[in-house]
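Standup notes
- DV: blocked on the single-chain target, sequence here:
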Amino acid sequence: MPNLYFCIPKDDAVYFDEHEVTHMKVMRLKEGEIIEATDGNGGKYKVVVKRIDKYSAVGSVISYEFVESPEGRLVLFAPSGRWERLRWTIEKAVELGVDEIYVFNNEHASRHYEDKQEKLELVVREAAKQCVRYNFPVIKPIEFLDIFSLAPESTYILDFKGRKIPKRISKNVGIIAGPEGGFSQKELSFLKKRFRSICLGKKILRFETAIILATGVFSMKLGKI
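- DV (later): unblocked, structure below
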């Protein structure tokens, strides 16, 4: 199984932070070994490790290749639930090729992650490395009303009373999932004025299960996986 490392490029060298040094130590990596790294922006680097310190490392670039993201845009709006459930949801969304992840607050999901940006980005990084993804998705905490300015035109609300997932979809798709307690009537009314509701089947699913199922379906349609 390939091991991918996250790097920060500068001139002909790349630098690794303490999280990557921990990864290197787990893998028993030695100075002089050749590894594969990414900057998370499509850069694919072949690197020879020059130095591994306690909290940082540096390598020399042997080769570079730019890896383009698959065509289309898949955007996920996930409720700000409990950390462990949210973390799992983010990990799976990254693996399934989501391009943008927005964690929103609303009446039934009032946890705030505005001061946890670095923590959120680290979850994205580790998930992207695990599935060998060279383009890391954007992740950002937002408020409920921000959805309307960030959502693609073809955005769908996951709703038990919605219609079936359409056979033909746009190249730019958004998915909005409500929290465990659902949206308030006022919120749902706002959303339905602009976005279409879709149903995933006959069973009532937990929010993270619904997100993964919907994301998987649209990701397959868009060729993200």
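- Follow-up: The first helix runs from residue 18 to 26.
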